[in-house]
TrEMBL record:
One of its GO terms (molecular function) is transferase activity. Keywords: Transferase. SUPFAM superfamilies: Nucleotide-diphospho-sugar transferases (SSF53448). Residues 9-129 form the Glycosyltransferase 2-like domain. This is Glycosyl transferase family 2. It comes from Kineothrix alysoides. PANTHER family: GLYCOSYLTRANSFERASE, GLYCOSYLTRANSFERASE 2-LIKE DOMAIN-CONTAINING PROTEIN.
Length: 283
């Protein structure tokens, strides 16, 4: 039988995010669910303001640890390893969570033993604003690409079972790799149909740098497949159909954009011809 209010350990890696971390911390400490601990991992920050802010933090509900630039996956593993909570929630030091997120997620986990991960809908703030246009959760979509952000609640015991976050994903996507590991051990993922997570968009971030490098993207997805080869073999028929559908969709989109581009270029040429005729007639 589940305890009425098991502890939730919130894991917050920080690398030079002093400008934003107070907002992130405040959103954690304002949770309506009170049995929480906040573990902040200073992952080798070298910015003076960030170092001073982290050194000044003082609250009995939080711990501040120091590591030497393990990067997000390693820093999360470091914090989770010493966490005393039954549940784990990673929150990056520049993001925010709604005050009711933990309470609502824990309720789902306690009432559904087959569910191992709970997340929610999200919105964007910072350089962009509005709802984060992620697809609704489905197992089939997860076979193809990640639609679950890292700020999701899961069992520490499942983290131990799958070996934690894969630090070999040094360019990103360690959350996708981790969710696939959770699915592979038979747990389900559930999305709360409500915006409870607020994701900060910066001009430059690890995500934007990753998505700008096609070779790096191919390499990381190849690593993910290799790490979960048995899982993909188990669902090979489903995966093949999803890949086929994605290829068809991309082919039709390519045709559409090529047609639109051709039409724009033809219009541009016609406009230039008219301008040349007008110059000859009236100049």
């Amino acid at each position: 039988m589940k305890r009425s209010m098991p502890k939730v350990s919130i894991i917050m890696p920080c690398y030079n995010d002093g400008l934003y971390i107070h907002e992130a911390i405040e959103s954690v400490l304002q949770q309506t669910y009170k049995n929480i601990e906040l573990i902040i991992i200073d992952d080798g920050s070298d910015e003076e303001d960030t170092i001073n802010i982290l050194n000044d933090l003082s609250d009995e509900r939080m711990k501040v640890l120091h590591t030497e630039n393990l990067k997000p996956a390693g820093a999360r593993n470091y914090g989770i390893n010493i966490a005393s909570g039954e549940y784990i929630l990673p929150v990056d030091s520049d993001d925010k969570i709604d005050a009711t997120y933990v309470e609502k997620a824990v309720k789902v986990l306690q009432n559904n033993p087959n569910i191992g991960v709970v997340y929610c809908e999200a919105d964007l703030f910072g350089e962009q604003n509005g709802k984060w246009d992620l697809p609704s959760y489905s197992f089939e979509t997860m076979l193809l690409d990640n639609i679950v952000f890292v700020t999701a609640i899961f069992y520490k015991s499942d983290w131990e079972k799958v070996g934690g976050f894969n630090t070999y994903m040094d360019s990103g996507m360690e959350d996708y790799d981790f969710w696939l590991s959770i699915l592979a051990v038979g747990k389900e993922i559930y999305q709360i149909p409500e915006i409870l997570f607020h994701y900060r968009i910066k001009k430059v971030s690890r995500t934007t740098q990753f998505m700008d490098n096609s070779m790096q993207v191919k390499e990381i997805y190849s690593r993910i497949y290799d790490s979960h080869e048995e899982f993909y073999e188990k669902y090979s028929k489903v995966y093949a159909k999803i890949l086929r559908d994605a290829l068809i969709e991309q082919t039709f989109l390519k045709r559409k954009y090529e047609f639109e581009l051709k039409r724009l270029l033809e219009g541009y040429e016609e406009e230039n011809v008219i301008k040349r005729i007008m110059r000859k007639l009236f100049c």
